[in-house]
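Minutes, project check-in

Agenda point 3 was the complex the collaborators sent over. CS summarized: two entities, 227 residues total, and the question is how they sit relative to each other. Sequences were read into the notes so everyone works from the same version.
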Amino acid sequence: SAVISQKPSRDICQRGTSLTIQCQVDSQVTMMFWYRQQPGQSLTLIATANQGSEATYESGFVIDKFPISRPNLTFSTLTVSNMSPEDSSIYLCSVTGSGTDTQYFGPGTRLTVL
Amino acid sequence: SQQGEEDPQALSIQEGENATMNCSYKTSINNLQWYRQNSGRGLVHLILIRSNEREKHSGRLRVTLDTSKKSSSLLITASRAADTASYFCATDARGGSNYKLTFGKGTLLTVNP
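CS then shared the predicted structure for the full assembly.
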């Protein structure tokens, strides 16, 4: 299975600021995704990070609020822009590799917005 | 609406007992995956079961899938206090989904020593 790391593991931010979360995988992967888990809730897919092109966003999520980059097959970033307390969540990246349907998740970034 | 819905929402058992969690979904799927999450941390992958499979085992875990009823169950046998966690099912919908997963609301399992 892929080993996935995320930075930072947690952060406390002021409203109106932005935070960039990094996701690093120890091997090349086919697909990378970003999910949000609001307090006490399940996971919701934000977007698919496409290598070398714009991310594909799910309904309710927009690029201006959650810009995503994926410069290569092992790394992606998610930025949470102009944050408000409603953005307080755990943000998780996930990956699938070539020839497998299994999706592995990173340890998550716990974000608190004051 | 949620693709996956687990029940019960919460389950409390004694160590050594078995725990069964159920998941229902609405659309046709390629596969269904079960995950564990400890205290709001990252998700740990437990088992993937494909739409053409009916049962899979991994250690103390047993997963069943009934595509006619659009439901799955996760059985943990001889539970331990360390099994205390939230358990989620996630479905990969059939038809060009590009591996996007839809998660259920989860079952919070508490195993009392």
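Noted in discussion: The mean pLDDT of chain A is 94.
Follow-up: revisit at the next meeting once the mutant set is ready.
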